[in-house]
Fold this sequence. Notes:
mainly alpha
Amino acid sequence: MDSTRNDCKPVAVLPEDNASLLSEVLPSAEVIENVPLPDADIGAGGPSAEVLGTMRRDEPSSSQPADVPISSTGERGKGLAEDGCETGSNLDPNEVRILSEGFTCFEVRLEGSSRTIVVPMDRDLLLNTEGVVPSLGPIFSDVEGRTLETLDGVALSMGIADLTLRTIILEIETARRKERRKAIFKKMERKYHEYRSKHREICMQFGGSGNFQALQDELKEKYDELVKVIGKCSVLEGALRDKEEELKVIKGVEAQCVDLQAQVISLRAELEKSLFKVDALGGELAGRTVDLEKSESDRLATLRQVEALEAVIRVLHIERVSDLETARFREEQLDERIGELEKEASKWIHAEAQLDIFRDLMTAGKEPEANFEDARTKACKARITCVYDPATTQVGDGEEDVDGIE
């Protein structure tokens, strides 16, 4: 028994689903005399590309059944409408194609997980019940395989028995689609011959006229203009893709900023822990001071040491306050400098973006060269303001300013 594992969304095969599908498919077996044809322009040389495209869409695919996603019953009608051959039923055309290739699908669920299994049609699971569990076992993991071994083969086969009704429904749908395509192709062939004869009559009527050649020349000129417009659109699409890449880079920078903010928060937490440790050390020092005071023999020496330690503590406290004020002042200066650099960088980026836009517009012939020169002058001024060195791709005085602040 050949089986393949499909990671796509499985379709549950339940008795009530089979009954609903049967009620939806059988009433839809109607006469297909008045089938609307696709709108197409038929020329003297044969059917148009749109008609041929419609014919190709109706042809069955030759891909493997395990690689085709199986949609739910609520989306089957929409899938048939988009496939170009709407039949009125809710069957998925992918399931019809899998059936035409000699396979059928069903779902097996074990403890919250599910797998879609493809089984050949010549395999009778109702008769071959002894080898059901060993044949299905290799497609599952070790845990699921052990769970599957505990199931009864007869019970598992009866759970798959609903495939018979579904197979009949799919066979009916395949036959209806085949007859429908035959009728459509016959009407297309009749319409093709009809429009071809009309085209020949029109060519015979207007072929000898001078205006016909003029119309052909005008049509050729319009076609050339259309090709040029398409080329310009391609250039604009390339520029749009470049802007999208720049936007992705900006998003990456924003993500890095978020990471840096998280690191700052963690450093602040570590600083608070250090302060707690300092307080703990101060308490320990006070305890030792009390012990020294209790020692009568060393009372005077202890008092002198306590006074000296208190003086040191006061000095350290003053130094700590001074260091904190100095650090706060440096941080404020650094924030101001960063704000100024961000403003200058934003102006520079804006000027460079305008320069790129004017360059593209000048290349396309939509803007004069004077506007491009003005934009270039603004970009140069912004670059000079940021003290940008093209050889090093870095701001010239940024690191020196930071060192001066520190």
